[in-house]
Specification:
The protein has helices at residues 19-26, 29-40, 57-65, 78-87, 125-138, 156-164, 166-170, 176-179, 182-186; strands spanning 47-51, 70-75, 93-97, 113-117, 144-150, 192-200, 207-214. By secondary structure, it is of the alpha/beta class. The protein has a single domain (13-214), classed as 3-Layer(aba) Sandwich (Rossmann fold), CATH 3.40.50. α3 links the parallel β1 (47-51) and β2. α2 crosses α3. The chain is globular. The model has no long low-confidence stretch (mean pLDDT 96). Bound molecules: S-adenosylmethionine (SAM). S-adenosylmethionine is lined by residues 6-9, 23, 51-54, 57-58, 75-77, 80, 99-100, 117-119, 122-123, 127.
């Protein structure tokens, strides 16, 4: 059986210790991450899954906003998860090493909200829509997807910022489809109300936020 591969947080394993600093100073992290946390709006009773949680920066903010919610972070990168569990821990915070699948979550743990930040641009083309489909299948009726990532790079300035930074580290093959607008297409589906809520121009390209609400029938 072929082993599934992935791109580490900053493109190369050796750079993982620099990940948090790079994101903080090069991506206007405070602006987009706090907007994403506000959009997710964790409330007591929420079960929130962060796919590709990396070093746990988003979960840390969400748990600070609402310590009564239940959180799960999933990522194939063990070093990133070790860093995450040093940053944030508690009885309501769990980490799962590995990739998203229908069987990845503990039995009976159905997320009310699923989020993912800066993961999709690192994922191969076919896998991007596969992950979105699995997210939809795991979500509670009435639940929500909240995504922040490099999506369509509309201006020449943002396209060249993306090319000179993210694509140097993460490569062109998996990232180019994001810059061409794949997220805008795959996040739209019947039964979901999908909006691109905000975009943040940064030194690494434009980071966009999406919200897709599952319209329970
Ligand atoms: C750029 S980092 C973002 C980390 C974190 N979400 C954040 O906002 O800082 C991307 C993360 O996605 C993970 N990743 C890459 N491919 C993945 C996949 N197919 N499934 C789940 N996680 C993946 C990487 O291991 C990495 O930790």
């Amino acid at each position: 059986m072929a082993t599934e591969t992935y791109t580490p947080p900053l493109g190369y394993k050796i750079l993982t210790p620099l990940y948090d600093l790079a994101i903080r100073y090069l991506t206007r992290e405070n602006a987009w991450r706090s907007a994403l946390a506000k959009q997710i709006n964790p409330v007591p009773g929420d079960r929130i899954l962060d796919v590709g949680c990396g070093t746990g920066s988003l979960l840390a903010i969400l748990a600070e906003h609402c310590p009564e919610a239940d959180f799960m972070g999933l990522d194939p990168d063990i070093e990133a998860l070790e860093r995450a569990s040093k940053k944030i821990n508690g009885p309501n915070i769990r980490f799962i090493p590995g990739f998203l699948s229908k069987e990845a979550l503990p039995q009976g743990w159905q997320p009310t909200k699923i989020t993912s930040s800066l993961m999709f641009h690192q994922v191969p083309l076919l896998k991007k829509s596969e992950i979105v489909d699995i997210m939809r299948s795991l979500l509670m009726p009435g639940g929500e997807l909240h995504i922040a990532d490099y999506a369509m790079q509309k201006s020449p300035l943002m396209r060249s910022a993306f090319r000179m930074t993210v694509q140097q580290l993460d490569g062109v093959e998996d990232t180019k489809h994001n810059a061409e607008g794949i997220l805008e297409r795959i996040l739209v589906a019947p039964g979901y109300l999908t909006e691109k809520t905000l975009s943040f121009p940064t030194a690494t390209g434009s980071i966009s936020l999406f919200k897709a609400k599952f319209l329970a029938s």
